[in-house]
Design goal:
Layout: H1 2-14, E1 20-22, H2 25-32, E2 40-43, E3 48-52, H3 57-63, E4 68-71, H4 79-89, E5 94-98, H5 104-113, E6 118-122, H6 127-130, H7 135-155, H8 165-178, E7 189-192, E8 213-218, E9 221-222, E10 225-226, E11 229-235, H9 240-258, H10 266-278, E12 291-293, E13 300-304, E14 317-320, E15 323-326, E16 330-333, E17 336-341, E18 344-347, E19 357-358
Parallel strand pairs: 1-5, 3-4, 5-6, 11-19
Antiparallel strand pairs: 1-2, 2-3, 7-8, 8-11, 9-10, 12-13, 14-17, 15-16, 17-18
């Protein structure tokens, strides 16, 4: 983790911040390796501190090997007073903090305890480092995607008339766990028929019927890193409309993927996809946004959508996921994780994308 700490110190120096306070759980994991909760990280000119309590102390000592782990007695000492104690010990006059990841009440308590220390609000200091994934991070995402691919392949034979959305979603989550996933990357979305028009619908007791669309959006987790994939099937027999919309969405996705290169903006990729969708009879039903970065969090920078000026760089792992959602009829989304490296673009997921019609 020292390489990441050194990168963070470099970012701090660019902003004239001798000391930096980290609240976000994922940012803490990124710089320290600690995967628990109830922690705060303080980077000073001399030390790396991880502040936690008795519930996570032993875990923190084991995982955050480049940090001085301090176990705070929550009854006798407030977090604010401990931070002030450490800042005063090193005679620090300026402290940066993550303004997007702390409550107003908590920050009032901390800032009040800091006495004469000058505080500087920052945003995206660590997120900008997480923007570019290293080889270890990319490897974990690829492993998570491989688990998802295998789990989906194992699930397909269970997609039969009468099964419910919830039954299949639970079976998919269980299979990913058996294959080595730490947890689902997010709450699995598995929807039939007209309910597939809900972009983030929750699996229900709706039973599968012949002619239904089957939309499955899910992912696995390895070493804290997530995968994210969507596949849409038809059960029984596909209508001409289902075939046409599926091909439109697939063409939009393939066009956007083909346009990915170093320095391309999220806005441009969205435009490429939208051109295909806008030329179809279903333009009014297209989803907003095309994708997002993925890593320790499901949704990370860069976001791929209209007005997004952020660019895709080597080491970026992003999703490309156009969709068409028609209320009362259903929805079709196709999503892959892709990574841009010095060797070119790689589609991380391996599950087939041609329209699959399932059933006996």
């Amino acid at each position: 983790m020292m390489s990441r700490i050194n990168l963070l110190r470099k970012k701090m120096a660019e902003k004239d911040l001798p000391c930096f306070l980290v609240f976000n759980q994922y940012n803490i994991t990124y710089v320290s390796g600690f995967t628990g909760h109830a922690a705060t990280v303080l980077i000073t000119p001399q030390h790396n501190y991880l502040l936690t309590d008795y519930r996570y102390f032993e875990q923190a000592v084991k995982e955050a090997t480049d940090f001085n782990v301090i176990c705070r007695d929550r009854v006798k000492q407030s977090l604010a007073s401990l931070i002030n104690e450490l800042v005063e010990a090193e005679q620090i006059d300026t402290l940066g903090f993550e303004s997007s990841h702390v409550s107003v009440q908590q920050w009032h308590e901390i800032s009040a305890a800091l006495n004469e220390t000058h505080v500087v609000a920052t945003t995206r200091l660590i997120e900008d480092l997480r923007y570019i994934k290293d080889e270890q991070e990319i490897s974990a995402i690829k492993q998570a995607a491989h688990i998802a691919d295998q789990a989906l392949a194992d699930l397909v034979p269970q997609i039969k008339a009468g099964v419910t959305e919830r039954e299949l979603a639970l079976a998919l989550d269980h299979k990913m766990a058996q294959l080595g996933s730490q947890a689902p990357a997010f709450d699995t979305i598995l929807l039939f028929g007209e309910r597939s028009a809900l972009p983030h619908g929750v699996p229900s007791e709706r039973e599968l019927q012949r002619g239904d669309l089957v939309l499955i959006d899910f992912g696995a987790t390895v070493d804290g890193y997530r995968s994210d994939m969507t596949r849409t099937f038809v059960y029984g027999e596909a209508s001409e409309q289902q075939k046409a919309i599926y091909q439109t969405v697939l063409t939009a996705q393939q066009s956007a993927i083909a346009a990915i290169e170093e320095g391309v903006t999220g806005d441009h990729l969205n435009q490429v996809s939208a051109e295909v969708l806008n030329a179809s009879d279903y333009a009014q039903y297209q989803g907003e946004g095309l994708g997002h970065g993925v890593g320790l969090e499901l949704h990370e920078f860069p976001f791929i959508g209209k007005g997004c000026s952020l660019t895709v760089e080597q080491g970026c792992v992003i999703t490309i996921e156009p969709g068409i959602y028609i209320p009362g009829w259903g929805g079709i989304r196709i999503e892959d994780d892709v990574v841009l490296t010095a060797q070119g673009l790689t589609i991380i997921n391996a599950s087939p994308k041609s329209l699959q019609v399932l059933g006996d």
